[in-house]
From TrEMBL:
It comes from Simplicispira metamorpha. Gene3D superfamilies: AhpD-like (1.20.1290.10). It holds the Pfam family CMD. It comes from the Bacteria. This is AhpD family alkylhydroperoxidase.
Length: 123
C-alpha cells in the first residue's frame, strides 16, 4: 500500500495535538529541543534537515520522513541534495535504509508537487 505523506503528516499532527493537551510540558520541551537543534549555526537549516532526513531513513520512521522531506521542500532543497543524503543513509543503514530511501524519495516528490500546485502562477 502506498503511503500519502501529506495525509500521514496531517494525521500525526492531529495525534500530536492530543498529546500536547495531555503532556504539555513534554511536548513544549520537545519543541524547544527541535527549535534549538535545527537553528542555523555552523550548519545551515537545510543541511540540518538533510541530516534529519537521513536519520529518519535509518530509523525507518515514516512520520519523520514526512515532516523532514516537507521541511526540505520548504527550504528549497533539490532532488540532488536529497539523493546524496539518502546515499549516506543507505551506506550507513544497508538494505532497510535503501527501502526507506525509496519511500523518502516518493515523499519528496509528493511535497514538491503540492508546493508547485499551491504556488501562484507566473505571469
Amino acid at each position: 500500500m502506498d503511503i500519502s505523506y501529506t495525509d500521514l503528516t496531517r494525521g500525526i499532527s492531529a495525534e500530536l495535538g492530543q498529546l500536547r493537551s495531555e503532556i504539555p510540558d513534554t511536548l513544549q520541551a520537545f519543541h524547544a529541543l527541535g527549535k534549538a537543534a535545527s537553528a542555523a549555526g555552523a550548519l545551515d537549516k537545510k543541511t540540518k534537515e538533510l541530516i534529519a532526513v537521513a536519520l529518519s531513513v535509518a530509523a525507518r520512521c515514516d512520520p519523520c520522513v514526512g515532516f523532514h522531506t516537507q521541511a526540505l521542500v520548504k527550504l528549497g532543497a533539490t532532488r540532488a541534495e536529497l539523493a546524496e543524503a539518502l546515499a549516506m543513509a543507505v551506506y550507513m543503514g544497508g538494505g532497510p535504509s535503501l527501502m526507506y530511501a525509496a519511500k523518502t524519495s516518493a515523499a519528496f516528490d509528493e511535497f514538491s508537487a503540492a508546493a508547485a500546485a499551491a504556488a501562484p502562477a507566473s505571469a
